[in-house]
Specification:
Blueprint lengths: L16 E5 L16 H4 L2 H9 L3 E5 L16 H11 L3 E4 L5 H9 L5 E4 L13 H8 L4 E4 L21 E3 L1 H15 L5 E5 L8 H8 L4 E4 L4 H7 L14 H13 L3 E3 L3 E5 L8 E5 L8 E5 L1 H12 L3 E5 L12 H12 L3 E4 L2 H9 L8 E2 L3 H8 L5 H4 L5
Parallel strand pairs: 1-2, 1-5, 2-4, 3-4, 5-6, 7-8, 7-13, 8-9, 13-14, 14-15
Antiparallel strand pairs: 10-11, 10-12
Helix pairs in contact: 8-9, 10-11
Bound molecules: adenosine monophosphate (AMP).
The site of adenosine monophosphate (AMP) has 16 residues, from strand 12.
Length: 396
């Protein structure tokens, strides 16, 4: 679908003005320091390529969700500082994404120099996909490069509207994301297994619908599994429930049978008397969840079964934790799944967001084939949706 898009290597950028959307929406700690630089470091190959080819590079990003106007805690100034260190060069910083001063800084750029614009979302026109705003951003470049995979499911001025005015190509990060996610979906080595978890069924409906036609196995864990367990007629105590989707869960189980897809649900779970790491816990089978208890992780029999499926799979896509893994008492299921993926020897793809954070916390990043930099964007991709920020790129 979106696999054959032009990349930065398909066009001549030497000496040209390049305006590039990146996703520097990094987590910040309470002292205003960058808590995780992954979103910056994953874009460095494209930025270095532009520098080495003598392009005049204008970088633009958002950070957080400011209302409309400047907020010091959401300024990209600290990111510019970090970028200077990472690139070992002076990166210029424009204190506003638009205006005469910024225009002058853009005009003064020399080949090989880089300018970072202040947070685009300080202007509400960015999220509104305002055509004038998009046109102004476009006027900073001769070519537009999108390397902001994490934002490419958004129809904003800098991810979509700008496409009206410039030739558009992908950076290396987007190219890799599309190749990894796209190949896994379109040409998977089998068995092909999807692992889905997280809190809610509702946020995974599109993915389940799309993947049912493609995978051999679907493993369902995490909070969302309890809606399925309820649909199978069991009591789930105080476990999280997506009441509106009980029927949908039933339909999915029937559809999976028709499509010959194996669905693996928890056989046993760890239940707790409160949502706390200090809670009293026990392991119970899913048909024996006591009143007053909530399921917060998969149990040992389930860990074993999920591990066996993962170890025999050749392609695995994972999105969503198996339990409330932020609390150590309920992290084992997520950890076992992560370790099984690390060991399986197949293609292993981790959707962004919580699953990526879990992999980080277990120190298993280097053992995965690909960890997506976009939670929402990778979900949209797995749902088979066309992503606006990829749609606008030129076809090869
Ligand atoms: P999502 O954003 O839907 O992927 O959900 C991720 C969140 O689901 C994480 O913060 C987990 O702590 C939470 N979660 C996973 N399993 C459970 C569960 N059994 N009960 C409550 N929350 C859960």
């Amino acid at each position: 679908m979106e696999l054959n898009k032009k990349s930065i290597e398909d066009v001549d950028i030497s000496g040209k003005r390049v305006v590039m959307r990146v996703d520097f929406n990094v987590p910040m700690d309470d002292k205003g320091r960058i808590a995780d630089k992954t979103r910056i470091t994953t874009t460095l190959p494209t930025i270095k390529y532009l520098i080495n080819n003598g392009a005049k590079t204008v970088l633009m990003s958002h950070l957080g969700n400011p209302k409309d106007g400047y907020e010091s805690s959401k300024s990209l100034a600290p990111i510019c500082e970090s970028l200077c260190h990472l690139l070992n060069m002076d990166v210029k910083f424009a204190k506003d994404a638009i205006g005469n001063d910024t225009r002058k800084m853009v005009d003064d750029l020399k080949g090989g120099e880089v300018l970072l614009l202040e947070n685009l979302r300080f202007h509400s026109e960015e999220k509104a996909n305002d055509p004038e705003f998009a046109k102004t951003l476009a006027s900073y470049g001769d070519i537009y490069v999108n390397d902001a995979f994490g934002t490419s499911h958004r129809k904003h001025a800098s991810t979509y509207g700008i496409g009206e005015y410039l030739p558009c190509v992908s950076g290396f990060l987007i190219e890799k994301e599309i190749a990894m996610l796209g190949n896994a979906l379109e040409q998977p080595e089998r068995e092909f297994t999807a692992i889905l978890g997280g809190a809610k069924v509702s946020s995974k409906i599109g993915v389940i619908n799309h993947l049912l036609e493609k995978v051999d196995n679907i493993i369902i864990g995490g909070g969302m599994a309890f809606t399925f367990i309820k649909a199978m007629g069991h009591s789930i105590g105080k476990s999280i429930l997506d009441e509106e989707h009980i029927n949908y869960a039933r339909e999915i189980l029937e559809m999976a049978k028709k499509e010959n897809v194996n669905v693996f649900l928890p056989k046993d779970v760890i239940v707790a008397d409160s949502f706390s790491n200090d809670a009293n816990t026990k392991v119970v089978d899913v048909d024996g969840i006591p009143e007053g208890y909530m399921g917060l992780d998969i149990g040992p029999k389930t860990c074993k079964e999920f591990t066996d499926v993962i170890l025999r799979s050749k392609t695995i896509i994972w999105n969503g934790p198996m339990g409330a893994f932020e609390m150590p008492k309920f992290a084992k299921g997520t950890k076992d799944v992560a370790y099984a993926m690390a060991q399986c020897g197949g293609i292993t793809i981790v959707g962004g967001g919580d699953s990526a954070r879990a992999i980080d916390s277990f120190g298993l990043q280097s053992k995965m084939t690909h960890i997506s930099t976009g939670g929402g964007a990778s979900l949209a991709f797995l749902e088979g949706k066309s992503l606006p920020g990829i749609e606008i790129l030129m076809d090869r």
